[in-house]
Specification:
The structure is a homodimer. The first copy, chain A, is α/β, with parallel strands linked by helices. The first copy, chain A, has 9 helices and 6 strands, in the order βαααααβαβαβαββα. In chain A, strands 3-2-1-4-5-6 form a 6-stranded parallel beta sheet, covered by helices on one side. The N and C termini of chain A lie close together (about 10 Å). At the A-B interface, helix 3, helix 4 and helix 6 of A face helix 3, helix 4 and helix 6 of B. Chains A, B: Keywords: Hydrolase. Chains A, B: This is HAD family hydrolase. Chains A, B: One of its GO terms (molecular function) is hydrolase activity. Chains A, B: It holds the Pfam family Hydrolase.
């Protein structure tokens, strides 16, 4: 493998855990209006309905929380609760970046390959996290895309002169980091995170260019095995 | 001039007019709580305070409207009003793109130069407008940046091998399209829009590489005059 692609959220650093703790606070805010499972299901549904409109990222998540709260209370939501939702989102936006165990070491150990960070979502928020991660300088290229589709990967390959079969993408999401890369002719390794958003889950594909690891710390060994 | 840079919002297509009509609806929503000027001033202040956090774009504007309404009513904002603000923002996100008079013709007339679209803001929303504009295919390159700083322009120049003194940026904003380009060594032409956001205004610089036009339709003639 000449090129190693790294997903960022929940592959290099924590992300979903902040969404989950915010969701827990959101459910507490609405207790009395609906049971926690119904709140979570309605929020997930609102996020999915809004994905084409808002894209991925915290600002869209904030707007979906406000909308969900209004819908669940039939607009009988006190202003304080709306203000609380805004404050929760602003806290997420200001949150420090926590690198996952082994992430920095794996990126460092692969310095003899070309390393490219490929992440999706809100550009401003992703740039903030990349800067705070301290890893920005390690990458030969950084790509922030709106959706990780096969076409989006093909465009990244074209932009950097990447030969797909010499590219390995490492990430925690089957739907974003694995399947579209395989479709675009690349190799992919799934490194699941304890918390992976429902929208990102999927079954293991039966594919010769698919791999799976438990820990990102094992990525350098996999790369060495694939290209001795 | 070998390269012509085009700003998008309020240079090629209407943008501020939609913000203004939404702001008028927002002021109507809050009438009884504050006079219109105070509502507008408070919204502008909230937007400025949130710029580093939310960046440019409609989602951040929606969140700033909700926050402003809460602050002006001391959280006594009915849920219906919050729902109305979300609906106004979603309408902006779905709004068709109206090209400004002469914009398509000017872009077309400069087909013997290299044309690059340089816009700032929310990537998803900018991509939507670029696609709807019907102009995407006319450009040799499209750059969506977070802030139009001298460094951001220098990075665009480096990425595309642009010699600054052979680059002319055309746009409606002194602070985003003119001053940072001059600082980065390029040429700039201000084409004011009737409605230019307060945050973007500024005095004409006394600078040999600065130009001013009343209408984008005159841009091809200016380019011909500068590089006969």
């Amino acid at each position: 493998m000449e090129w190693i692609g790294f997903d960022a959220d929940d592959t290099l650093w924590e992300n979903e855990t902040f969404f989950r703790s915010t969701q827990a606070g959101f459910a507490r805010l609405l207790e009395g209006h609906a049971p926690p499972e119904r709140i979570a299901a309605h929020l997930f549904d609102t996020e999915c309905r809004n994905l084409a409109r808002y894209g991925y990222g915290i600002k869209g998540f904030m707007l979906s929380m406000v909308q969900t709260a209004l819908e669940l209370t039939e607009n009988r939501l006190p202003g304080e609760a709306v203000a609380e939702i805004l404050a929760m989102g602003q806290e997420m936006l200001a949150h420090p970046v926590h690198l996952l165990e082994g992430a920095a070491g794996a990126v460092e150990a692969l310095s003899d390959r070309r390393r490219i960070l490929i992440t999706k979502g809100d550009v401003l928020d992703q740039e903030r996290k990349i800067a705070l991660s301290g890893l920005a300088e390690r990458f030969d290229a950084i790509e922030i895309v709106q959706h990780k589709t096969p076409d989006a990967y093909a465009a990244v390959f074209a932009r950097h002169g990447i030969t797909p079969d010499r590219f390995l993408m490492a990430g925690n999401s089957m739907n974003s980091d694995v399947l579209p890369v395989l479709q675009a002719g690349g190799n992919a390794v799934l490194i699941p995170h304890d918390l992976t958003w429902l929208h990102e889950q999927g079954d293991d594909p039966d594919h010769p260019r698919f791999h799976r690891l438990e820990r990102i710390a094992d990525l350098p060994a996999l790369v060495a095995k694939l290209t001795p």
